[in-house]
Amino acid sequence: MVYEKLSKNALRCMYTADLLAGVLILAVIGAADLLWIFPKDLAVGKWISLALAVLTLFDACVSPWFRYNRYRYGIDEECIDIREGYLFIKRQIVPIERLHKLQIRTGPIDRAFHVAKVIVTTAGGDVTISFLERERAEEIAGSLRRRINEIAAQQKREQGEREDGRA
């Protein structure tokens, strides 16, 4: 199986999403620090807030690079194989014959960077191929749709042959 990497737009999208999430987390930390969660004379609370802020900024700056460099996906005639992760690598292998539904989804940040997600639904749940160029997402969805239709037609023919053999 040939594994494909993501485009540079995917990396930009990851950084933007993580930085926006980091800013939101920092705002919550700042609000908690300013309000009465930590008494004014409690220095430990201020140090905890500072440590959380530093960890949040570090994560927002480092995790997209790791996720981008570790993300791989491969699609062949039999299955879809996705490898992703930051600290822990997760591998998902989905047989194409088990697919039930395909979706292409984009969020506001995805649209800004011209990337999309292909969401594949099986009886066991959803699997997402993330951060694809829009055109590539359309190609993948189209080829998977054709393959699903071929498998369904083949199964229908085999079922008809079995029924003819019984009659």
From TrEMBL:
<keyword id="KW-0472">Membrane</keyword>
<keyword id="KW-0812">Transmembrane</keyword>
<keyword id="KW-1133">Transmembrane helix</keyword>
<feature type="transmembrane region" description="Helical">
    <location>
        <begin position="44"/>
        <end position="66"/>
    </location>
</feature>
<feature type="transmembrane region" description="Helical">
    <location>
        <begin position="20"/>
        <end position="38"/>
    </location>
</feature>
<protein>
    <submittedName>
        <fullName>PH domain-containing protein</fullName>
    </submittedName>
</protein>
<dbReference type="Pfam" id="PF03703">
    <property type="entry name" value="bPH_2"/>
</dbReference>
<dbReference type="InterPro" id="IPR005182">
    <property type="entry name" value="YdbS-like_PH"/>
</dbReference>
<feature type="domain" description="YdbS-like PH">
    <location>
        <begin position="68"/>
        <end position="141"/>
    </location>
</feature>
